[in-house]
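Section 5.1 Outputs to date
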Amino acid sequence: MVRPAKHIENVRYAIRNVVAEASRLEAQGREILYLNIGDPLKFDFRTPPHLIEAVHQAMRDGHNGYAPSAGIPSAREAIAREAHRHGIPGVAPADVVVTTGASEALELALTALLEPGERVLLPCPGYPLYNALMAKLSAQGVPYSLDEENGWSLDLEEIDALCTPGTRAILLCNPNNPTGAVLDRKALEGLLEIARRRGLVVLSDEIYDKLIYDKPHVPTASLATDVPIITFSGMSKAYLACGWRVGWLVFNNAHLMPELKSAVMRLADARLCGPAPQQYAIAPALDGPQDHIAEMMKRLRVRRDLMVRRINTIPGLSVVEPAAAFYAMPRIQLPGVLNDEDFVLSLLRTTGVLFVHGSGFGQKAGTTHFRVVFLPPEDILTTAFDRLETFVRERYPR
């Protein structure tokens, strides 16, 4: 037997792990309602035609070889323009790296930044990739709790207390996956003050920044010129191109981290490049028509409101209304439910409805949750919530 590296034992990805049981049931002929994965293209959303045409034209024009390691010039220029539109000063195309999805952007930044054993503060709940990357790099992900009673906002005192001499960075996911929360200016300014005082890098994952309902999104890098901030985004969500794997990172206030930027660029060179033809859709996406986003959010608002209404009428369940994206993190307060993975799997086997257990994203000790994706059309959501309500009322009578 070939022994794998020990640090890989801690790599987990809860979102896909529960799918194995759903696939087993589906193979037996069961109908499964998938409310577990955030891919709009699995439902009734489609990639804007002008972006498809841009990639098609790039292929016809022969742009099928390797691209420059940091991305094609037109893409990097468009991303820099987008930063300026968001009120972020001083970003040049040379401060941008185009990557294979925002996931690779995060991995490049963290790999360049961290020595084994060093610490990064991570949101809890948070996207499972963050902890997986910490395990892969033999670094330490330190969770900071998002405050459910305060709209999943930050507890700045806790964040400050978690900082040690070995802490290198604070990572934000704003808007947040899995809660759909959006941080306000005051919370962001408080976090930036901690980073400023402690000499930390701020890593700001903002891939859902355009998918907002009412509460405005404030770009982290628009609030400080004296803190090193790396922003992450991509085309997967707002531009409905998940499978293209087009992402990027932006060094904001790059003069504060020239050596880190150089290290990321070396790593980018070592892996050659991100997908080449798809990069030709970045400028048309960022600079072109945005009508599809308004239409997408119009549909999602109806689905969000349906989800909130239904969850909050089921005894023992409650949910904070998400301010962005297409996720929510309902809380379970039912007698005897101590393990939310068991709850999710029992629900799946009984009803065919698939959510992801909250413990897969992290949560405050003593609480249980599940994540719901409300991308499906209203009829599918209604069926799913009917089944959920019947399951809870029959299994946990009050």
